Amino acid sequence: MYIPSSNKEDNLDALHNLIRAYNFATLITSHNGTPFATHIPFMLDDKRGPYGTLVGHMARANPQWQYFTTVDEVLVIFQGPHAYISPSWYTGEFNVPTWNYAVAHAYGCPKIIEELGEIQQLLDRLVDNHESSRPQPWAFTWSERHINLTKAIVAFEIEITKLEGKFKLSQNRSQTDQQQVIDGLNLSTFESDRAVAELMRIGAQSDK
Fold this sequence. Notes:
By secondary structure, this protein is an alpha+beta fold. 29% of the residues lie in helices and 34% in strands.
């Protein structure tokens, strides 16, 4: 990934927070020179490995998992919030539109999880992560039918061996421009725009 020095984000906590918040990611492999991508949710175990370990699953009918034994490395892309930036928010006479965004690229070698208990824990954790904030959270009550359904998926983990972060958040602009971008984004009705504004605000505070 092309990362200008001003946009490089190497704070592990910041990258882990992005992965957790935007855990529906793109898993990319290459087979016989052809890229293959699958869009799936991941869970992060930040206690294993120098950069953490990703855990996920896909349909057994998806051929991508069969490539795991023939690849040395896979890429998982976590797309954080992104927003169009209007030139009207900048000072000066000559300005052009651009896009602000935050993204993390995680690299590693996948390992298939075979043990049923581990697969059940993975699914329990994934469901709990997305159900816990609901008024009436749903949870697995593991029946024989549920267990049989696990045969239709392949669970796996990826210890992250390299983690890249790019937070393009108007770092090349003046403080005045940055604040005007934040103010403009905060007026938006789009949640992603306001999320970018919040990342910019946090970044501006950490620079002080």
